[in-house]
Design brief:
single chain, mainly alpha
Length: 275
């Protein structure tokens, strides 16, 4: 990918993620009705997914995924929306990360009012990891920031590095499992199947390591419903997520997906899945 192409994608990514954030604020304040909100949200979400995948695959054309049933296609809308919300949250978080040498207000110790540039922010996060390669917290911050910048491959490298230090680190297992699923559509179908399987294994491992890590349940519900038509398993994960996180950052998406899988289970043609 040439520098101008990458810059254009990064600009579009920032615009779309900011648009999603603004849309959430406008909807929360009552400035937009639900139908308009959902239409705009689905549009921004689909466009953001394309941009992030192009960035993560170095601009290569993404092969179409194998066709899915109409029931699973309905679920996919909620699933992709939920995963892109994570990217939007990561971006907002990354912009506000307090770096070494900064005060609570984000200014440096020299009281400079200049904002830290994106490149400087990344260099300082990377420097913290170099200073102490076994600092899991530093690697988690860097991984979140890299993902917010659309570099899923490097973010995954950081999560994998964490797992070499602590193989049972639930956040690294869950977040890397989510990224593996996000990137499953960026290559040939045979590779996608392998990535989906790895995603499921990591999400299972995250919950074995920490059954109370609720985000792993939410992520696993998406994979179960979309890839394995395991609507019963997804329903259980979503119900437990909402019990522990009724006002969590993915609560709205979890409720919508729970409605979808419950409807799928009530369909005469639904197999219900297993596990």
């Amino acid at each position: 990918m040439t520098s101008p192409d990458k810059f254009a994608l990064e600009t579009e990514r920032d615009f779309l993620l900011q648009s999603l954030e603004n849309l959430e604020s406008e909807y929360s304040s009552g400035g937009i009705d639900e139908d308009s909100y959902r239409n705009l949200h689905d549009d921004y979400t689909a466009r953001t997914a394309i941009v992030l995948r192009k960035l993560s695959s170095d601009g290569k054309e993404i092969e179409a995924s194998p066709p899915v049933s109409s029931r699973r296609r309905v679920l996919t809308i909620s699933a992709i929306s939920a995963f892109i919300v994570i990217a939007a949250i990561s971006l907002a978080f990354a912009v506000g990360i307090r770096l070494p040498g900064q005060s609570v207000t984000g200014n440096t110790e020299s009281t400079s009012d200049k904002k830290v540039s994106s490149a400087d922010r990344q260099r300082r996060l990377e420097a913290a990891v170099v200073a102490d390669p076994k600092d899991i917290s530093a690697r988690l911050l860097l991984a979140q920031y890299l993902e917010a910048q659309g570099d899923l491959a490097l973010a995954l490298e950081q999560y994998d590095a964490i797992l070499t230090i602590d193989a049972s680190n639930a956040p690294a297992l869950a977040q890397s499992g989510r990224i593996l699923y996000l990137t499953a559509g960026a290559g040939p179908a045979v590779d996608a199947a392998g990535l989906v399987e790895k995603s499921q294994l990591r999400l299972d491992a995250a919950l074995l390591a920490d059954p109370e890590y609720s985000e792993a349940r939410f992520f696993r519900a998406i994979v179960r419903a979309n890839e394995f038509a395991d609507f019963s398993g997804a329903q259980g994960d979503l119900q437990r997520y909402l019990v522990t996180e009724p006002n969590g950052r993915f609560a709205a998406q979890a409720r919508q997906l729970l409605t979808d899988v419950t409807n799928a289970l009530s369909s005469p043609s639904s197999s219900g899945g297993g596990g």
